[in-house]
Amino acid sequence: MGLRQHDQTGHEPRFATEPWSATTRFLPVAATGGVPLMDIVERFGTPAYVVDEADVRGRCHAFRAVLPDADIVYAAKAFLCRAMATWIREEKLGLDVCSGGELAIAESVGFPAERIIFHGNAKTPHELLEAVNYGVGRIVVDNLAEVTRLAMLVPPGRRQKVLLRVIPDIEAGAHEAIRTGGEGQKFGLSIASGDTAAAVARVLLQPELRLVGLHCHLGSQIRTAEPYEQAARIMIEQLAHIRDAYGIVLPELDLGGGQGIAYLEAEHGLTPDDYARTVLKAVEERSAALNLPVPRLTIEPGRSISGPAGLTLYRVIAVKRSLTRTFVAVDGGMSDNPRPSLYGARYTARLIGRRSALAPRQVTLVGHHCEAGDVIAESVPLPSDIRPGDVIAVPATGAYHHSMASTYNLTGRPPVIAVADGAARMVVRREEIDDLLRRDVGL
Ligand SMILES: Cc1ncc(COP(=O)(O)O)c(C=O)c1O
Ligand SMILES: N[C@@H](CCCC[NH3+])C(=O)O
């Protein structure tokens, strides 16, 4: 979802779905959603997360179009609620879940179990049991101990399909905290240490488990295709090693997610086209070279499906001109967007609801939390008459915002408002003080 700038007619910005193109940008584009943002502010208040259903569905189609033979599995951790799980189910994608909570949402909308992949580096026995009982299609084994633990939970007469999560030893991702493809981080089985080989041997010894393939996930917010090309080659080589060592050809290869998006106007995301072209070529070439059948591919995009489809609306509470900077403080902050403080993530923002003839000036958009680091965006150009009561929209907040929101300073989490066909509806309600107090059982 892009934000249309104020047009010459002075109309309020409306929702606008950006088609996938060579780049993903927040440039003026034709309005399609038809919901004025100020209507949402008036009906639902601020702060509020807004998600454009058509945009989400369009991004699902875009991946499906370029990878018609692959399983496209949406990574729920990016953004999940019942509405989102329903759209993903209707779009016939799979769902990657990594907790009992995410699985419960999937179950609550009747998400087909076979299309679910269950992840996690420390799945509890209870979570494993829930996953097995629901009949999830694949469980991704992350460590050696999990093999027997899982096998013991599978009911007699059933065989649980598993993938092994392998460390391809590739460094990719926008920040150290979201790089998961190298040695020395907590996810997956090392090839170099022999853990991958040991895990294959262990799984093959368990009649309750059926090893169907390998998985890797390099990291997140990767904006070029090269790391995926490398990963595809390394993973195909691992499939060939397994064939040579055990005489079995594993039919599936899951390359995880991580496709990057644009957060700023000057940035480019990794398009499904570029991603698919590079990965398919690498998989086909390397398979042919090693005399392996081309495996069935799975990918797990999260951010690139929900991220650009969302934005956050805030109300300006205070404007402070210090000696060095102008601070624009809004009614949300690090509780609804922890990404700047966790990963140094950068955002842009727009004034909506009124036009200003004044030239923009660079401001620092900050939240209301009791932390000096509670910054939503640095150096944002906003009109110099920005004032309390104004409404600000921050684009590209559809992934890892709602799902990572906290109640810091006992702030209730914002609602999620879905827009579709010119109408807005609340799909997750605002967290009220009563919700926060309900958990506190007192003395
Ligand atoms: C196993 C796995 N798959 C998929 C994803 C989705 O990543 P992204 O939202 O960057 O596409 C993640 C998160 O990084 C992950 O851990
Ligand atoms: N939470 C991270 C992405 C982590 C992906 C999960 N492995 C972010 O907001 O960028």
Description:
By secondary structure, the protein is of the alpha/beta class. It folds into two domains: 2-51 and 309-438, Lyase, Ornithine Decarboxylase, Chain A, domain 1 (Beta Barrel); 67-306, TIM Barrel (Alpha-Beta Barrel). It is built from twelve helices and 20 strands. The strands form three sheets. Strands 3, 13, 14, 15, 16, 17, 18, 19 and 20 form a nine-stranded mixed β-sheet that branches. An eight-stranded parallel beta barrel has the order 4-5-6-7-8-10-11-12, surrounded by seven helices. The chain has a two-stranded antiparallel ribbon with strand order 1-2. Strand 11 (252-254), helix 9 (272-289) and strand 12 (296-299) form a beta-alpha-beta unit. Helix 8 packs parallel to helix 9 (272-289). The chain starts with a strand and ends in a 5-residue tail after the last helix. Pyridoxal 5'-phosphate binds at residues 258, 300-303, 400. Its EC number is 4.1.1.20. It holds the Pfam family Orn_Arg_deC_N.
Backbone structural class: alpha/beta
In the CATH hierarchy, the third-tier topology of the largest domain is known as: TIM Barrel
What's the CATH architecture of the largest domain?
Answer: Alpha-Beta Barrel
* Bound ions, cofactors and other small molecules, one mention each: pyridoxal-5'-phosphate, lysine
CATH classification, class level of the largest domain: Alpha Beta
Modified residues (N6-(pyridoxal phosphate)lysine): 77
Subunit structure: Homodimer.
Cofactor: pyridoxal 5'-phosphate
GO molecular function, one term: diaminopimelate decarboxylase activity
